[in-house]
Write a structure and sequence with these properties.
The chain is built from nine helices and 13 strands. It is of the alpha+beta class. It has three domains: 154 residues, no CATH class; 85 residues, Signal transduction histidine kinase, dimerisation/phosphotransfer (DHp) domain (Helix Hairpins, Orthogonal Bundle), CATH 1.10.287.130; 150 residues, Histidine kinase-like ATPase, C-terminal domain (Heat Shock Protein 90), CATH 3.30.565.10. The strands form three sheets. The protein has a six-stranded antiparallel sheet with strand order 2-1-6-5-4-3. A five-stranded mixed sheet has the order 8-10-11-13-12. A two-stranded antiparallel ribbon has the order 7-9. It is rod-shaped.
């Protein structure tokens, strides 16, 4: 990834442009208000001098005013102040350039006309702006008072220079910061990118390095590592499931082929053919049960049952299953315990819950020896409903309770019993579908399996 294409670099450039624009606007605003204030001050000074000289003229006459203007003009030029008198349109005394120079602007304020002379060359050979005001002292006498605005010219130059420096250094600083931030971000992105390349090559063993910085990159890296762990677990699970399917399907298929081959070796009577065909059908049923269980697990894990969720009265649901399995349990020489409690409801899929409880009851009946007990309960505690199936069979060791929830996992003690090792996997998938919790514990003796739901629902 190129540095100049990184978001950090682009953000830095945008920041530089914004800051440069803001600097220009700020300096121009300062310039405008400062110039406006300084021009107002100059205008006040010119008006004050006009008023003062007018009073002198009224008291002392024209000759005295001419002498005063000459003296002030000679002394004032060092301070950039200029004076001039015209009589009948002809120059009398003072600075003649006030009359001969071309004005660039004219306006009236407080009954006095003001004029601006641009590019006037003063004693320092600098071009400055001169502002002057004029007043008719009599029908034939005109007084002009002016002042060079050196400070305004200097301010204008300073602000223009400041603008250039501000924009220049802002852009340079932004480029430096953008380059630094871009390289920093790019190095973090490259680490993630290289890790993702390994994921593309199906290498999930090397996790992305996690820095000590508690920022968004650390959060992203942790999530990616967690995701890779989940993907690795799923892939390993798929491989294991594929191996288990191949192993579990091989036995019934081999039996089917062997029976059919042996049957065809010699002629047999009709009863023998029927017996072999029945055994082949039983093997086919075992295969179908395996595939149906796998399909049910896949549907539960993919959320297919979520399309058919509603408030389910689990008391009524379990009571129906209890009536269905009571005879089966008793025919197996077991004691069946079930007492119907008050109505308790949850939000879920009725069909998937029936499958889960069916599997738990069939496991309890299958692994409980004759004379044992199978107990079915529905209870609620702290507004959390539970369905509990317990038995007095051999139970499951604590170290194996998590493993038996995986597909095709069977304990050595259960190898002699028929089954595919998918029963508890289906129960676990249904429990996750309902955001519930599956708890396997000792029944002393036997196993207790509890499906604990998050919340109870009201029944209308």
């Amino acid at each position: 990834m190129k540095l100049f294409k990184t978001t950090a670099f682009r953000v830095a450039i945008q920041f530089a442009a914004s800051f440069a624009t803001l600097s220009v606007i700020t300096l121009l605003s300062v310039y405008y208000f400062t110039i406006h204030e300084m021009e107002g001050q100059v205008e006040k000074e010119l008006l004050h001098e006009l008023h003062e000289l007018s009073q002198h003229y009224e008291k002392n006459g024209q000759e005295s005013l001419v002498e005063l203007v000459k003296a002030r003009d000679q002394y004032g030029q060092h301070l950039h102040h200029y004076y001039s008198i015209l009589s009948n349109g002809r120059f009398v005394a003072g600075s003649e350039f006030l009359i001969t120079s071309e004005t660039v602007s004219k306006y009236q304020k407080s009954g006095v006309f003001f004029f601006d002379i641009d590019d006037f060359e003063d004693e320092s050979d600098d071009d400055v702006i001169v502002k002057y005001a004029q007043k008719n002292l009599s029908s034939n006498l005109l007084l002009l008072v002016g002042q060079a605005q050196n400070s305004l010219t200097e301010l204008r130059e300073h602000i223009f220079t400041a603008l250039i420096y501000a924009v220049f250094f802002t852009v340079i600083l932004a480029l430096f910061i953008g380059t630094y931030m871009g390289r920093s971000v790019l190095s973090r992105i490259n680490l993630i990118d290289s890790g993702m390349d390994k994921v593309i090559e199906s290498d999930f063993t090397q996790l992305l390095p996690v820095t000590d910085d508690e920022d968004e990159f650390q959060a992203l890296t942790l999530k990616l590592n967690f995701m890779m762990g989940k993907i690795e677990k799923l892939i390993n699970g798929m491989r294991q499931v594929s191996d288990n399917i191949a192993h579990d399907l091989r036995s019934p298929l081999t039996r089917m082929r062997s029976r059919l081959e042996v049957t065809l070796l010699q002629n047999r009577d009709e009863d023998e053919y029927r017996e072999v065909m029945q055994k082949v059908i039983d093997d086919c049923d075992e295969l179908l049960r395996t595939f149906n269980s796998l399909l049910a697990i896949t549907q539960a894990e993919s959320g297919v049952f979520r399309d058919n969720v509603d408030v389910v009265d689990i008391t009524n649901l379990v009571d129906e299953l209890a009536e269905l399995y009571r005879a089966v349990v008793e025919d197996s020489g077991l004691e069946f315990i079930w007492q119907k409690p008050k109505k308790i409801a949850v939000y879920g899929s009725r069909s998937s819950l029936i499958q889960a409880v069916n599997n738990l009851l069939e496991n309890a009946i299958k692994y409980t020896p004759e004379g044992g007990k199978v107990k079915l309960e529905v209870r609620i505690s702290n507004n959390r409903p539970s369905i509990i199936v317990s038995d007095t069979g051999p139970g499951i060791p604590k170290k194996d309770r998590q493993r038996v929830l995986e597909r095709f996992q069977r304990l050595d003690s259960a190898r002699s019993k028929s089954g595919s090792g998918l029963g508890l996997s289906l129960v676990n998938a249904v429990v996750k579908l309902h955001n519930a919790k599956l708890i396997l514990s000792d029944n002393n003796p036997g196993l207790k399996v509890e499906i604990k739901f998050p919340d109870a629902e009201k029944i209308n």
